[in-house]
Design goal:
The protein is α+β, with helices and mostly antiparallel strands and 219 residues long. The chain folds into two domains: 2-106, Pseudouridine synthase I, catalytic domain, N-terminal subdomain (Alpha-Beta Plaits, 2-Layer Sandwich), CATH 3.30.70; 108-214, Alpha-Beta Plaits (2-Layer Sandwich), CATH 3.30.70. 24% of the residues lie in helices and 35% in strands. The protein is built from five helices and eleven strands. The strands form two sheets. Strands 1, 2, 3, 4, 5, 8, 9, 10 and 11 form a nine-stranded mixed sheet that branches. Strands 6-7 form a two-stranded antiparallel ribbon. β2 (49-52) and β3 form a beta hairpin.
């Protein structure tokens, strides 16, 4: 069996596709492209696909990752091109590489996000960002599948800067997982006049070396 690692993007209206929607579309693309999938054993075999750190529904992304098992060895670039020819609009296979040793999840500990806030007043946003960064902790609550949970937003923020268009956020991937909308929730508690609508895009995932996020598919 060959193990591949795949980077994919959700662009445009495809950002509204849920994690489950993407999974169905990806498996259909594998069949249409006649990619020789490897399957699990047992009474209900399923394709050997392992997803990591799915972005929230409604967020665009350039950096989602999965691992794929094949029953035959294939050229990674050819797999990428065949899948892209079979994927729906907006769901794009960015890169395919042969999996290197170690767990993919260990390479995905940090995310970089761009948060566009239409009509934001930069001074108000900068003041809220400064107050959040000055806090030792800042808790928000969000309803999850298991009930109402509390998240310490400040503990997850590695870097947060304001601009005339919105925010640039670098955050740790941990448990519980703090999302960009949690950070926005915290900022709106500090500055209620901030816009309620936002376009969130994940730009990168990987490990933080103190200055930048390292590519998780690099050797």
């Amino acid at each position: 069996m060959q193990k591949l690692r795949v980077q994919y993007a959700k662009r445009g209206r495809a950002r509204f596709a849920s994690h489950r929607d993407f999974g169905r579309a990806f498996e259909r693309a594998l069949r249409r492209a006649e990619i020789p999938m490897a399957f699990s054993s047992g009474f209900s075999p399923h394709p050997r696909i392992s997803y990591a750190n799915a972005s929230p529904t409604g967020a665009a992304t350039e950096a989602e990752y999965l691992e794929l098992g094949l029953a035959e060895v294939r050229e990674p670039d050819a797999v990428r091109d065949q899948l892209n020819a079979a994927m729906p609009d907006g769901l794009v296979i960015v890169k395919v590489v042969v999996a290197s040793p170690g767990a993919l999840a260990e390479r995905l500990t940090t995310s970089a996000w761009q948060v566009d806030l239409p009509d934001v007043v930069e001074a108000e946003l900068s003041t809220a960002v400064a107050a959040l960064l000055a806090a030792d902790s800042f808790e928000v609550q969000r309803m999850t599948k298991t009930g109402l949970r509390t998240f310490d937003v400040r503990a997850a923020v590695i870097s947060l800067t304001a601009s005339a268009n919105g925010l640039n956020l670098v955050s740790a991937i941990g448990e519980p997982l703090v999302r960009p909308d949690d950070v926005l929730n915290a900022l709106r508690q500090l500055a209620p006049e901030l816009p309620s609508n936002a376009l969130i895009t994940r730009l990168a995932q990987g490990t933080w070396d103190g200055e930048r996020i390292l590519d998780p598919l690099a050797d």
